[in-house]
Fold each of these.
Amino acid sequence: MTDNIVSIEDITVVFDGFKAVNGLSLNVRHNELRVVIGPNGAGKTTLLDIICGKTKPRQGRVMFKGTDLTRLEEHQIVRLGVARKFQTPSVYEDLSVRENFEVSLPEGRSVWGSLLFRRDATVAKRIAEVASWVFLDSVLRTKAKHLSHGQKQWLEIGMMLIQDPALLLLDEPVAGMSHKEREQTAELLKRIARGKSIVVIEHDMEFVRSIAHTVTVMHQGSVLCEGSIDEVQRNQRVIEVYLGA
Ligand code: ADP
């Protein structure tokens, strides 16, 4: 039995002859909050795309809870418990917060499913619980288009949580958030990571310091180094990459 929820084994991704990811290996443990940093073009987004099945590697494999994901379709990987959030929030603007949660329920994917489950008390309880986790319990009836940018980011995290995934992949979740919203998001991610694993791409080092268990630094499609935030910030090769030396 392994401690890892995800093992990325010697992955290479090639776009038009260019190796965007080059022999990358990475393990993420159960209940770990892993932050991935690195300069633009390092391959961070491609890494998340590989795990969720959006991008297929030329070489290597991705193991998730003992299952080889490498050849599976995106929708199959979602069903196994991997949820992905992109940088720009993607919510249903004309639906209320509650309705956004309802359509995100695994049962709510069909119109009939959503009508049936809307009246289910356990679903109502689940929505209330998730709404309170993501600080949206007071705006359940508000249409998503009237939420602040930060609230939309939270709504999307809530829409992931309602599906009860084992692994959340987040691409810059605090981009565009106020200082206070960043602090709340840090608390939220730490709370989520008590029962789930998270891989988050982030640039804001203050935020990284407030959440990271382990930081992975990527450069030119590979892992440059891994360790605590202090360890990676002291690493001479990391300093050189960030200073462009
Ligand atoms: P990061 O997220 O670290 O900024 P990306 O994973 O987005 O890096 O990109 C890694 C490299 O792969 C970059 O040089 C980028 O231009 C290239 N790349 C990413 N996606 C594609 C694509 N669909 N087609 C061609 N090149 C791509």
Amino acid sequence: LDPQMQAALPVLLRLEEAGFQAVFVGGCVRDLLLGLPLHDVDIASSATPEEAMELFPDAIPTGLRHGTVTVRHGGRLYELTTFRTDGEYGDARRPDEVRFVRSLEEDLRRRDFTINAMAMDRSGRLTDPFGGQADLRNRTLRAVGAAEERFAEDALRLLRGIRFAAVYGLSFAPSAWRGLKAGREGMRLIAMERVGAELDKLLAGGGLARGAALLAASGLADRFKEPIPALARAAGACSAHGRGLAAPLQAASRLQRPDDGWAALHLLLGLTADQAMQGFADEAKMSFATLRFSLARQERLAAVLAFHAGVQRLGRDPQRDGLARLVLELGEEPVREGLAFLAAAERAGLAPQLFPAGAAPPAALLSGWLEQLPARTLKELAIDGRLLQRQLGRRPGPWLGPLLKRLLEAVMLGEAPNETEALAKLAVSWMEGE
Ligand code: ATP
Ligand code: MG
């Protein structure tokens, strides 16, 4: 067993001691067999949610209707799900009703792919009724049961399939591939939030290039033309008649933070499409809003795109003042976001691709300059509004903001020292001059 599974053993034991069956299921079993690090450990058991809540009184009833409670143990959270079968799917999204069952095999049958339909007990014994282990060994993605039906039940499985194939380097079994193509209309039915979460996992798992190729080959890419045009274009670029973007997309696949992937995707496909950058920034913003990203996240992404445009203006031989102006224009935090992206792009070998003229100033150089700036924000300025009012003997008013900004600019551009007295004098001289 993996150390993370070891850590969860007391939860299994507690259930077993109470007479229930309890096993590890899903992604953790799959990743363990692949020799990959586990990110979360899911547990399934024959205990109903009520029975589970009795055994773990401080469990959080996160999804009682679907049989899920979240158990806290040793500082970690575990999803504990009751063995269940799914009832009818009325809307290709969620089962209308679930039925709790006492049999593990019945529970495994409702799962999407054979590689996800395995369970492991606490001694490491595998339950694998659909040949998931063999499929993993042969690098095959196969639906549990009739693929076409399974995709029709829940269209999210289309995207999950693409993700698993792309991230783990699996080939679709012929039946699964046919099912995917037959079910692609279902894409329209998936809530955009779920699409976003799935694509995030695709990006985090390094599956962008392979995923784009699979979207193209399956015809699923067409469904993205409207909501996420850059992704549809990426798919086009990976198909046989593409614009030769496959290599940069490969490099972009090495980015590990989903947001870096999203930014790179839009920058790459913006640049080669040879359209105005502004148009692409707007398009990117639309996509991120469509994917229901949080506002904070949308702002961070917009900052990275704005930073990229700004850095491009700095050119191949950037000056410290240029960076200072960028900080004045965008703000310190957005510049830090942008620098983190630039550094990640460098590590992925993607930086040259993001700057068509090859004018990518190294992130380390820009970061060094940022740290050296005598101030980056009004907070760091050696004078504040209150002091200025006192020095100038004026009441607070709309004159104050612009004056502070001007002082910050003077400090950041090296025209004045960041010292209270000098700044007060400078302000006085400006006011007298007007
Ligand atoms: P990862 O955690 O790496 O994203 P995972 O396979 O664990 O992958 P989860 O969303 O955590 O994915 O789901 C846990 C398990 O629940 C899956 O392994 C699968 O058995 C089952 N499952 C999840 N979503 C679906 C679905 N849409 N249809 C059928 N089974 C699903
Ligand atoms: Mg999981």
Amino acid sequence: MSTVVLSDQFSLVNSWINELRNVETQHDRLRFRRNMERIGEIAAFEISKDLDTKEIEIQTPLDKIKVQEIAVQPVITTILRAGVPLFQGILNYFDKADCGFVAAYRKHDANDYFSIKQDYLTCPNIDGRPLIIADPMLATGASLIEAIKDLLTNGSPSQLHIVVAIASKQGVETIEKEYPNAKIWVGAIDERLTSKGYITPGLGDAGDLSYGEK
Ligand code: URA
């Protein structure tokens, strides 16, 4: 489908991303989580413009009026644990959505920084519904591809939206190739990955900054 970079035109999103990246501000854990959440909120607002609508009639104190409403509520999903604040931001706006969760982590063995271990999935039926996946750091794309594969065992969504705070160029290209019908909403795209699979300049470890070092 396409990739939208939310920081391409300056807005408050840029200031929030700056705070997420900056070593002088990123260790305020509450503020880090809240900035992630705010990016999720903005992405949710933008995604809402892409959703199919239906006409409904409502009664005001003065008259009846025909208005547009979301036709089918989305299913919002995330990858535990780093994705939770970004996910919460999306859920703040789609307050009637159903939710799903995937638990996945990098093994971080001495000589293997890339293998993904996935051990938990819960997701409602997504058949014919817009599916939104919140993944704050799109590095190689490997864990996201695994998560999407598992989520798609729960049905065939009408739309696939992927919300990311910071992505590597390589990660975006990988997901665009693997899921050409997906729309990626990304805060910012960075050029490179380190040999350990971290996005650089990036922001470090989003899970640790949100919830503490493991
Ligand atoms: N996950 C993170 O938290 N940071 C990265 O740079 C890559 C993956």
